[in-house]
Amino acid sequence: MVTAPGHPLAGRRDLTLAELAAQPWVLSMPGTAYRQTALALTNTTGFTPAIAHEVLEWTAVVSLVGHGLGIALLPRLARLPAQPTVVRIPVVRGAQPPAAHRDPPGPTAPTRPSPPSTALPLSDWSG
Fold this sequence. Notes:
The protein has one domain: 3-Layer(aba) Sandwich (D-Maltodextrin-Binding Protein, domain 2), CATH 3.40.190. It is 17% helix and 15% strand. The chain has helices spanning 33-45, 58-66; strands at 2-3, 15-16, 24-28, 50-55, 87-88, 91-92.
C-alpha cells in the first residue's frame, strides 16, 4: 500500500486490507487488470473501496497519492517515481470474513474443476 508521508497511517509497520476500508482510494480506470485485482482483494476482505480518483497510469496514481488525495494498493515490484514522495506499507493478511454456509453437494451433484484464479496473491500486492 502507498500513502502520502503525512497520512496518519504512514508510520505503521504494516496494515491489513480491512484497515484501509474507510480510506479514499486512487485506482486505475474500469476494466484494467490492476483495478480488477484491487477490487477482488478488497471484496474478499468484505468491503468495496471508496474510489476518490481514477487514472490511466501508475505515475498518476503515485502523484495523487503523494499529494494526499488517497491511498493505493500497488504491486510490491511496481517502480515508483522519485517525486512525489510516498510511503510504502506492507499489507498483511488479517482475519478473513466468515465464509457463507453451504451444504455439501449431494451424491448426484456434478463435480467440475474450479476455474483458475486470475487474482494475484496478496503477497504480490504488499507494498
